[in-house]
Amino acid sequence: MLVLENLTKRYGSLTALNDVSLHVRRGEFFGLLGPNGAGKSTLMSHVAGLRQPDAGRLSIDGVPCDRAGAASANIGFVPQSLALYEDLNAEENLAIFGRLYGLTGAALKARIDECLVAVGLQDRRRDTVKTFSGGMQRRLNLAASLLHAPKLLLCDEPTVGIDPQSRNAIFDLLEQLNRDGLTIIYSTHYMEEATRLCSRIGIIDHGRIHALGTLDELLEKLPSREVVMFPRGSVAHDLAAKLEQFGALHERAEQRELHLRGDVRLAEFFAATAAAGLPDRLFQLKRPTLEDLFLHLTGKTLRE
Ligand code: ADP
C-alpha cells in the first residue's frame, strides 16, 4: 500500500527525516511510535502529499507520488491539529470536506450520514462545532477524513488531549475500519496505544526508524525477557549494585528496575536475593515493554 524509499527531509540544518525506508502492507494497522519531535508528523505530511521530500521516493497503492497530492484520492488524513470550522455545524463541516473530494448531491449526503454514524455524532449533526468537547471535535475530524472512502488512513496522534471515552470510541472505530480492510498508519508517543492497536510498529526517533516489526518481534530485540522491580530505598545501595551481576539496573522515579540478562533464570536470581536477606515480596516482575525497547535503542524514554 505504501512504499517509502530513502526519504529525507531537512528544515534548514535540522534533518527531520533521515533516509527513511518503509513498506506498509495492504490491510495493516501500522504504528509509528516515537517521542515529540521524532519526525512522525513530518513523515505523515509527506505521505499525505502535503510536502515534498528533499530526497527519496514514495508511492501509494502503486502510484508514484512525484508531485504534491498525486495520490490524495486514496488517502484520508487526520492531522494532529484540528481542521474544522468552529462556527459551522457538524454536517456543514463534513459537506465542505466532501466537496473538496468531489462529492456532491445525494452521494455526499449519504456519506455524511454514514460517517456521522460511524463516529457516533449523528445526534449532534446540527450543533455548531464550538459546542463540542475536544473528543467530539477529534471524532468529527476523523469523519472528515473518511468521507471519500480512502484506501489508506493516516492518523497523526489523534488522541492527544482527549477524554478516555472519546479515545476508546476512536480506538473501536479504527479497529472496525481496519477489520473492514482499511490500511491505517497511526502515529503516537503512547506505547499503550501502539501495543493495543498496531499489527506492526516502527520505532522512530530523530527522523530515523530504529526498529520495525510486530510487538513480539520488537520485544525479542531486548537483551532481557524479564524485568524485576523493587522500590527505591528498599535495598541498600551496595546490595543493589551487587544485583547488577544479573542484568542492567535502571533508576526510575519510584523504583529501580533490573533487566535480567537473557541467560539468568529467575530461580537463580531469587536464590541469590534470599541468600542476601532480601525477601521475595520486595520484588515485582514485569514483562519488558516498548518503553523498555525505546530506552534500549535510544538511551532515553518516550516522554523525555
Ligand atoms: P513529531 O510529529 O514526531 O513530534 P515532527 O515531525 O513534528 O515530530 O518534527 C520533527 C522535527 O522537525 C522537530 O525537531 C521539529 O521541531 C522539526 N520541524 C517540524 N516542522 C518544522 C518546520 N515547518 N520548520 C522547521 N522545523 C520543523
Description:
The chain is of the alpha/beta class and 304 residues long. The chain has two domains: 2-219, P-loop containing nucleotide triphosphate hydrolases (Rossmann fold), CATH 3.40.50; 226-287, Alpha-Beta Plaits. The protein contains ten helices and 14 strands. The protein has helices spanning 40-47, 90-100, 105-118, 134-146, 164-179, 191-197, 215-219, 237-243, 266-275, 290-298, and strands spanning 2-11, 14-24, 29-33, 55-60, 63-64, 75-78, 152-156, 183-188, 200-205, 208-213, 227-231, 247-251, 255-260, 284-286. The strands form three sheets. The protein has a six-stranded mixed β-sheet, sandwiched between helices. A four-stranded antiparallel β-sheet has the order 2-1-4-5, with helices on one face. A hairpin with a 2-residue loop joins strand 1 (2-11) and strand 2 (14-24). Helix 3 crosses helix 4 (134-146) and helix 4 runs parallel beside helix 5 (164-179). The two termini are 33 Å apart. The mean pLDDT is 91. The structure holds adenosine-5'-diphosphate (ADP). Residues 11, 14, 16, 34, 36-42 line the site of adenosine-5'-diphosphate.
Describe the secondary-structure layout.
Blueprint: E1 2-11, E2 14-24, E3 29-33, H1 40-47, E4 55-60, E5 63-64, E6 75-78, H2 90-100, H3 105-118, H4 134-146, E7 152-156, H5 164-179, E8 183-188, H6 191-197, E9 200-205, E10 208-213, H7 215-219, E11 227-231, H8 237-243, E12 247-251, E13 255-260, H9 266-275, E14 284-286, H10 290-298
Parallel strand pairs: 3-8, 3-9, 6-7, 7-8
Antiparallel strand pairs: 1-2, 1-4, 4-5, 9-10, 11-13, 11-14, 12-13
Helix pairs in contact: 2-3, 2-4, 3-4, 4-5
The site of adenosine-5'-diphosphate has 11 residues, from strand 2 and helix 1.
